[in-house]
Amino acid sequence: MFSKIKKTTILVIASTLLTTTLGETVIKAESIDNSAAETATTNDSSLMATTQSSYEDIDVAAVKANMLTELNRLRSQNNLQPLISVNVLTNYAQSRTDSFTNTGVDNHSNWNTSDMYPYNLTAEENISQMPYSMIGTTDPLTIAQKVTNEFYSEEYDRTPDYGHRKNILNPYVTYVGIGVTVADNGMIYFSQEIGNDEASRDKFDPSTIANYDATRQNDYANPSKYDIADSKRTSADYTTRDDYQIADIRGGVSTKNYNTPLYDRYGNKRDNLDLSPNSDWLSDIIATINGKTYYHVSNDGFVSSKDVLPWAKFLYGSSITTTTEANIYDNNGNFTGRKVTAGSKMAIDRRAINPLTKIKMYHIGVNAWVQENQAKLN
After folding, report:
1. Does pTM top 0.90 for this prediction?
2. Interval 150-170: pLDDT, tens
3. Which long-range contacts (CB under 8 A, 24 or more apart) does 33-36 make?
């Protein structure tokens, strides 16, 4: 993709390769564990009522059965044990989706883990809604695969952090219940209630559970695979090997204040190719190459994690309001000496982890960030 010109700086972002495209669809999906929750919406609620009468023909029991099968098929692709369906969680999951016919998915506000007892340890929840106009079929397997793929990919999530994927691929959970409800207007609601009882939880080292939960603090997926989601990835950039593992992100990187070297998928420095200082580049995967971390920015083009600030890109416009006089940080995580007054509302388009303080921060302008502990997401 790049011509080899002596020390030429790359100036054009490879957006045609990496930009996410949104169709005319509506979905709301949410995931939660005991420590975190993310809400997802789309920007066209008018489609929610666009339905066809055949949604009444959906076999809910068959969809639930296929969702369990597809969930465990996904887990098997990642060398994980299948989750076991239990009535307590199934009944609770069904009560959750039934309640959404009145409220819509509720951002977990009515999620009560005590109702999952005794399977409420290491508790997790994934919930979503899809209109029949989006699903477009009554086939139980197709519905199950579409829902599972959305939980896995979070294609329509407003602030994707792959929390759904981390829930369904959690190695340290054992039991699941699935709920499905078809509303009178053709909206279809889904719930996955996941957890352990005391005996199953005690099989796992608490520190390993804590370490896995800590991955929710990042904005990328753990390394994993799903044949449906990966079917369009034919480039060698997406083919893992013993010394090459990848994890999905939806965002990009900003280079620092120097020409940034570019590497191939084997970790070899590309001759005569650099990225511009202080430039933004879209990225769709993180690669671990020979034990070192890189970000994918073009065909067979990667930058070292040491040379960039990675960030997650919001799919829709969002804003924050500062809760105190907030410091402004640069791309390197350094305090610039500038501040924002308390109560200021600002548009944002991405978030990142401050490389010095390890605190999430929101992008408010060119080379300007505010930490989330001094602001709230509107």
Report:
1. no
2. 999 998 887 788 999 999 999
3. 33/122, 33/123, 33/124, 33/125, 33/163, 33/166, 33/167, 33/213, 33/216, 34/113, 34/122, 34/123, 34/124, 34/213, 35/213, 35/216, 36/163, 36/216
